[in-house]
Specification:
alpha/beta
Length: 206
């Protein structure tokens, strides 16, 4: 369909893949921002339900995900920059305002989008993670300590793995691992990651 698998290149050169279905009868348009590790494909059921009800939907693959460009420089992922990209995307399709929906990491991006471009947002919906105001310190170690006590594993323990010097090599060597195996987050955290990572003393208690 013409509405799906579209491409848009920002003014600073990044290309995004996205789907856009216009609304019917002047109904609202939903901007769906996925989380990690996901893509716009996660929204397929919501896209179907919303569009069948006459609402518009625009669902991009965020930078670094799915079919969008995958930059290797960290600065490319600054939230103000990404917010500007979404504003450009709306301009590209002549969309004035949206109902913003963010899931997981997408909630962080949506939190900044509404700060930098409040005139583009009618309403906000946050799923899994709530609104995060700018300038608030995100205590990863503290959250991991708390979740270790309450859940028996660290919810963001994988952050330590991603920051380890050999993470890229390990992940590249194990690309054959099935998605189904990785979906059992608790098992993965308690076995594979525990064996590979030296945790900060504030977490390990050593």
């Amino acid at each position: 369909m013409a509405f799906f698998d579209k491409r848009f290149t920002t003014s600073d050169g990044d290309t995004y893949a996205y789907d856009y279905v216009p609304p019917k009868e002047n109904k609202a348009i939903f901007l769906l921002i996925h989380g990690y590790p996901s893509s716009r494909y996660d929204w397929r059921y919501q896209v179907t339900d919303l569009t069948e009800a006459g609402y518009g939907v625009i669902a991009p693959d965020c930078l670094g995900y799915g079919d969008s460009d995958k930059r290797v420089d960290i600065e490319a992922y600054r939230l103000k920059r990404l917010s500007g990209h979404f504003a450009e995307l709306l301009d590209h399709d002549n969309i004035e305002q949206v109902i913003g929906v963010g899931h997981d990491w997408g909630s962080m991006v949506l939190s900044r989008f509404v700060v930098w471009h409040p005139e583009r947002v009618q309403k906000l919906v946050f799923l899994s993670a709530g609104y995060c105001a700018p300038g608030i310190f995100f205590d990863v170690d503290g959250l991991n300590v708390l979740s270790q006590k309450q859940l028996g594993y660290m919810q963001l323990g994988y952050w330590y793995f991603f920051n380890s010097y050999d993470a890229e090599e390990i992940m590249s060597r194990n690309v054959c691992v099935s998605r189904l195996e990785l979906l059992d987050l608790k098992v993965w955290l308690l076995t594979y990651m525990k064996a590979r990572i030296v945790l900060p003393s504030s977490i390990s208690g050593q």
